[in-house]
Amino acid sequence: METSKKEIKKEIKTDSPIKKGFLVPGLPHLLLCPEKKPEWTELNKAFKKVRDEIEEINPDVILIYSSYWFSILGHQVQAMKEPEWTLVDEEWHELGSIPYKLKMDVDFANTYVECARERGLKARTTAYKGFPIDTGSVVALKLLNPDNKFKASIVSSNVYSDRAETVVLGKAAVEALKKEGKTAVAVVISSLSNRYLDEEIDYSKPERIHSLKDEEWNQKYLEFLSQGRLEDVAQLSRQFHREARVSKKVVAFKPFWWFSTVMGSTNNFKGEVFCYKPVHGTGAAVVGLTPTDKSTGDLEFDEENAEVYKGNRNVLSSDDSSKDGDEVLSEKN
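-> structure tokens emitted (333 positions)
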């Protein structure tokens, strides 16, 4: 059953500047040729539902964490006022070009970077003509904010960061919103399982998930998300990555660490799965999470909730000061 506009506002019970959160996929198929597969059509329609909710909430900024934007040295925040270019996806160039002109919140980007640095992170703004904004961000903003009604902010996913660093990055985002006196919706752009089918697209055949194992893990994640168990999902990120994702570029599934943090690191949400379909083997889900005053079950979180990033823990040192850093973490992406 679809949620009405009145119900959306009634359900949102939070003092947080983040009024609602969404998970969306970022593959260009859903923007450039949704009519070519029934599954892509349904996902495209789900984006329309999210767009309607965002318009009803009327946030000051759409806050995006894109797993499609990789950074190596620290974290980058897009700070060009109106980035404009023509994108051709490096993996799906045959689908065509995406001309875009977006609208960024420059003031927020600068504050976000300041807050991140104050918390010990390496961070900087990125603002120059022709910067290659990632496919996921372009697809999401073209579908969710086609007329640039709302300003956006896009932060990169550092390939070397692990949980503590990603958690601190999320806290810096919330702190920046409070300093700016702004409200936001958080949008995470990522697939669930991300293994492609090793074959050409056959437009005459139905889509399918790469493997039964991937499908089982996707369904478990969707079950948790539908129950509003966002922090529980975040706690399972490493396991999910090992079981259902390709480790070519990263070895930790970061999006839900950031997502849960900006949303408050709780399970106090009403979850709604708008759509879940395969896209060439990957698991594509459009999910909404609305803050409520009710939690799902009794929780036992396993990992610490870092406030400041102090570097990866030196596991070879006998110095007790090594305990002050990242709780585990020297994983290489």
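The chain is about 35% helix and 20% strand.
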